[in-house]
Design goal:
alpha/beta; Spore Coat Polysaccharide Biosynthesis Protein SpsA, Chain A; 10 helices; elongated
Length: 326
């Protein structure tokens, strides 16, 4: 019988653990009834400190394993740790915070299994109710990161996706240290299809992503998959140099032919501060790219596994001793 590997990374989800266990049991039953698949659950503990792993281990049934990482490596890496354990025919990545509903998970599987020409079906977040500022920032980000690429990273797509095992194995071979998964999925290619959905509200706890984390994550994506920011600053520097040269020619012309005095310290101070700030920004951006290169050049593993907790083997009944008839 074909097998589905369900990958669920988590971090400090003790409050939502019991609800997730119940949800997974319903999901497993539906997958068996609708698609005839067995489900192997791969949970990745990304350095939890609230005993989440123990709660999951005490409540999960069927075939499962919990990969406990030695510390918090980040969700992107936790997903990779799950992909490295894939041994089934299909894979579904679904968070353990209950924001990914089983209905959408089943829909992703139905789209994947119903179309042999599709390798990946991903959930695309509906942002129609987002603020104008946020939607515009997202649009600018994806326009920047997709410029001058041979592939497009779809907007508002995340890790909530179903895929064939060949795709999972291909992604697990990409050992980027600073991971931007949605970029890696797009880079790997394969035939992909989107399903629009709205995330469920969190059942318990709070989001692990702050605004600063999101900004840093976006910058990591840009420096990993696009050179456009460098090209923009290069072009801006050239335009600034041309503008400065034009102003210099104008000042020289006015002094030689009209005797107009050269402007004093205020204009000079503005020019120095502006160019100094621009140089610092450029150096900071170049430093980000250099740091990415340095990180990738170090021969460190992407993550370290503390241990793996697996479902206990079923106890086999003892064979009855044969009785001889007199």
């Amino acid at each position: 019988m074909a097998r589905l590997d369900l990958i669920s990374p988590f971090l400090n989800e003790a409050q939502a653990a019991q609800a997730f266990i119940s949800l997974v049991a319903k999901f497993e039953a539906e997958v068996g009834r609708r698609f005839g698949l067995t489900v192997h659950k791969i949970l990745v503990d990304d350095g939890s400190t609230d005993g989440s792993a123990e709660i999951f281990a005490s409540g999960l049934t069927g075939s499962w394993e919990i990969v406990r990482l030695s510390r918090n490596f980040g969700k992107e890496v936790a997903v990779l740790a799950g992909l490295d354990r894939v041994g089934g025919d299909y894979v579904l990545i679904m968070d353990a915070d209950l924001q990914h509903s089983i209905e959408i998970g089943l829909k992703l599987l139905a789209e994947l299994l119903g179309d042999p020409n599709v390798d990946v079906v991903y959930a695309k977040t509906d942002r129609s109710d987002s603020s104008w500022r946020r939607s515009q920032l997202a649009r600018v980000f994806y326009r920047l990161i997709n410029s001058s690429q041979r592939f497009d990273i779809p907007a508002n797509a995340g890790d909530f996706r179903a895929m064939r095992a060949a795709v999972a194995h291909a992604i697990s071979k990409l050992r980027d240290k600073r991971r931007f998964n949605k970029g890696l999925y797009a880079w790997a290619g394969f035939r992909q299809k989107a399903v629009v959905y709205s995330p469920e509200p969190r059942a318990a706890g709070s989001s692990k992503w702050s605004r600063l984390d999101l900004i840093a994550f976006s910058l990591e994506g840009l420096t990993s998959f696009s050179a456009v920011p460098l090209r923009i600053l290069t072009l801006f520097g050239l335009l600034t140099a041309i503008g400065g040269g034009a102003v210099g020619v104008k000042v020289l012309f006015e002094v030689l032919f009209y005797g107009i005095a050269v402007p004093g310290y205020p204009s000079l101070l503005v020019a120095v501060v502006f160019l100094g700030g621009l140089n610092l920004a450029l150096l900071g951006l170049v430093g980000e790219y250099v740091w990415v290169a340095v990180s990738e050049s170090k021969d460190r593993p992407v993550y370290v596994v503390r241990d793996v907790i697996s479902a206990p083997e079923p106890v086999k009944p003892k064979a009855r001793p044969e009785t001889s008839s007199a």
